[in-house]
Amino acid sequence: MNGAHTSIPISDDDPKAPLLSANDSPVHRSGSFRSTAKSIFNLKNLYVLLGPILCAGVCYFVKLDGPSGVGSRNMLAVLMWVFTWWLTEAVPMPITSMSPLFLFPIFGIAAADEVARSYMDDVIALVLGSFILALAVEHYNIHKRLALNVTLLFCGDPLNPPLLLLGICATTFFVSMWMHNVATAVMMMPVATGILHRFPMGSSRSAAETNFCKAVILGVTYATPIGGMSTLTGTGVNLILVGMWKSYFPEADPISFNTWSFFALPMALLIFFIFWVVLCLMYCPRGSGPALSTHLDKTQLKRELDALGPVAFAEKMVLAIFSMLIFLWMTKNITDDIPGWGALFDDRAGDGTVSVMMATLLFIIPNRKQEGEKLMDWNKCKKLPWGIILLLGAGFAIADGVNKSGLADILANALNFLEKAPYLAVAPAVCLVSSLITELVTSNNATTTLVIPILIQIASIMHLHPLFLMIPGAVGAQFAFLLPTSTPSNVVGFSTGYIDIPDMIKIGLPLKIVGIAAVSLLMPSLGTFPLLFLFCFSILSLAL
């Protein structure tokens, strides 16, 4: 024996095992108990319990009159549960978004099959196809090539900072029209910071250079949501609005891609133009060109563009598929007098039909890089934002539940006092409230899901077309410009370190005011006077 002590493990069934091991002392057990108690009784777990508690409280204490009182009460209880989890994020938002799948059948609101159908319809198909195409654009660096070409085009000789800023912001606006806001911000911000890395860092940077850096980051940050509101695919908020319109008013004409663009694009262009003017006035004064020109060398920009190499076959095919998708979206339904290609299929094809069909081509066409390799494969699609897709489905399910349970009628009766309120007083208030909820409480998608059912009832009481309030509520939820935590694009911009909260408020506050005024004043006229579309384009052309 060498005297070394060898520990022999003793099984729990050994009769010679000590009843109290050294690691199971009272002190150790006390510390373990406190640790366990702390892990159980924390704020997040209390929020988890808060949802069911509020739900039970509504079921027990709230009594609603009418033949559908029980169903309406149950729907209100489910809303309390779901929105509590959404607002506190006690449970991950995608998981909360699936809760109607078990809550609705349990509370007798809808059958399981009916609820499940809300999670896969034409709008969800539109989102899926668009996201897959966006991943293809990102994979082949098409966005980076576009940004470098635009920077070279707008750089000017000599350098014109406002014009360059317009080029960067306009590129972001355009990309955000076709891709989700989060994807656009994540893709375009490295392009913007790549340009700014040419400037000195820290205290060696001049005032003109500092202001231009802030202007570029603020421009990309805010051009993202402004561009996103102009098309259906730019943001989930627009898709939630369209889905709820279809759910509440199935007999009405659906809001197609073409219809929404014809309405929202002029408004977004007007807001974008004013935003660019404000940005230039505050951060790009005249005479700043010479101080910046030494760092923005066209030769270096061309060198980076050349490093990407010639446009490959795969890039050309992705661009061709994307262009074909836009063309098919815009021509499915043209006017009442000029039917689009959708008439060939008795209007059975939707925007989602086109989106998925074009996305499918990405998995069929070879990329000519490796033998047998296609433009896209399923491994590249693992970054699909399933959380957003589930949130959309939850919004549609809630809209159906509020309508079918009778809760919508009870809300309408409770809002009778708004019958004589003027539209120009209610619409700005709706925009402001939606934007503040997004700023301070939850995401713009969740805000839209929360306020749209209420706004439909308010519009009914005021004898207004529902879209007159639904659209300000949905678009207003996208006017969250003041805080870095308000939206993911704000987070992306703030995380670069070039801007701080006072900068965001300095630009965000006037932008919020302009946005609310534009939506409130133009909403009654945009659908009536199509020439406003040309008017907005003429303004932008004059600016260029």
Automatic annotation (TrEMBL):
<feature type="transmembrane region" description="Helical">
    <location>
        <begin position="513"/>
        <end position="540"/>
    </location>
</feature>
<keyword id="KW-0472">Membrane</keyword>
<feature type="transmembrane region" description="Helical">
    <location>
        <begin position="423"/>
        <end position="442"/>
    </location>
</feature>
<dbReference type="Pfam" id="PF00939">
    <property type="entry name" value="Na_sulph_symp"/>
</dbReference>
<feature type="transmembrane region" description="Helical">
    <location>
        <begin position="305"/>
        <end position="329"/>
    </location>
</feature>
<feature type="transmembrane region" description="Helical">
    <location>
        <begin position="349"/>
        <end position="365"/>
    </location>
</feature>
<keyword id="KW-0812">Transmembrane</keyword>
<protein>
    <submittedName>
        <fullName>Tonoplast dicarboxylate transporter isoform X1</fullName>
    </submittedName>
</protein>
<feature type="transmembrane region" description="Helical">
    <location>
        <begin position="123"/>
        <end position="143"/>
    </location>
</feature>
<feature type="region of interest" description="Disordered">
    <location>
        <begin position="1"/>
        <end position="32"/>
    </location>
</feature>
<feature type="transmembrane region" description="Helical">
    <location>
        <begin position="163"/>
        <end position="196"/>
    </location>
</feature>
<feature type="transmembrane region" description="Helical">
    <location>
        <begin position="93"/>
        <end position="111"/>
    </location>
</feature>
<feature type="transmembrane region" description="Helical">
    <location>
        <begin position="46"/>
        <end position="63"/>
    </location>
</feature>
<keyword id="KW-1133">Transmembrane helix</keyword>
<dbReference type="InterPro" id="IPR001898">
    <property type="entry name" value="SLC13A/DASS"/>
</dbReference>
<feature type="transmembrane region" description="Helical">
    <location>
        <begin position="386"/>
        <end position="403"/>
    </location>
</feature>
<feature type="transmembrane region" description="Helical">
    <location>
        <begin position="216"/>
        <end position="242"/>
    </location>
</feature>
<feature type="transmembrane region" description="Helical">
    <location>
        <begin position="262"/>
        <end position="284"/>
    </location>
</feature>
<feature type="transmembrane region" description="Helical">
    <location>
        <begin position="454"/>
        <end position="475"/>
    </location>
</feature>
